[in-house]
Amino acid sequence: MTERVFHTEDLTKVYDTGAVQVYALRGVTMELFAGELTVLLGPSGSGKSTLLNILGGLDSASGGRAWFRDRELTAMRDRDLTRYRRDHVGFVFQFYNLVPSLTARENVALVTEIARDPMPADEALSRVGLGHRLDHFPAEMSGGEQQRVAIARAIAKRPEVLLCDEPTGALDSKTGVQVLEALKTINEDLGTSTVVITHNAGIRKMAHRVVHFTDGRIGTVDVNDTRIAPSEITW
Question: How many other β-carbons are positioned within 10 Å of the β-carbon of residue 29?
Fold first, then answer.
């Protein structure tokens, strides 16, 4: 039986603006499994990022429960969530958040300095196809290369899970494919459980599992037995 890496029960998130309550999640119950590449698919505002932030320990739920393996995230204190993020989770966002004055190697090394069992920065960059760009600064790289540096930074601490929020959202199709190839390689070679948020329906075809979101709720969950390579995705 495949091991669960995340599961939630009736998870809700409500933003209270004073005059109006905005429901970002409306009773989400779901499972995500170890070693899989999962796509959370849905339009903007459907609750995907809110769920990812709760699973990553960046946000709290208004109600319901969420677990990482056998640890209840929704019961953790801030200090425990900080330790959880440091030891178990890698994040990749739409915008790269690289330090402009540091080289690719130095940007990745920022993470290795605080990790328990870090991967050398050179190795992390080589795994995303940037072994030849170690000493280049962000301004000297394309958008796709910068995003791959961000992926290398995320995996350098050897996280169990990699959470990616619209990692190709700011890229054209060619560079987007390069980023997806890097994510696929990390998932397959390292066994890192990977969750990718997207509104691009084509990306679902490379996933093991696709979770469809609408208006803060989960619709269907599809298991994909005929995955395709990122280069075959229609953008």
Answer: 13
Strand-pairing partners, residue 30, are 8
The sign of the dihedral angle between the CA atoms of 130, 132, 136, 140 is negative
pLDDT at 101 over 70: yes
Q: Please tell me the distance from the alpha carbon of residue 145 to that of residue 229, in angstroms, as a whole number.
A: 19
d(CA 56, CA 68): 9
Q: Which two tokens stand for residue 137?
A: 């600064």
pLDDT tens by residue, 49-97? 999 999 999 999 999 999 999 999 999 999 999 999 999 999 999 889 9
Gap between the Cα atoms of 57 and 55, Å rounded: 6
Q: Under CATH, what is the fold of the domain 33-60+75-232?
A: Rossmann fold (3.40.50)
Give the Cα separation of 176 and 235 in Å (integer): 9
For residue 78, the SS3 value is: helix
Tokens 């958008």 label which residue? 143
147 contact partners, CB below 8 Å, separation of at least 6: 92, 96, 167, 168, 170, 171, 175, 179
Model confidence, pTM: 0.93
Distance CA 75, CA 78 (A): 10
Distance CA 67, CA 4 (A): 9
Distance CA 159, CA 1 (A): 22
How many residues can be counted in the chain?
Answer: 235
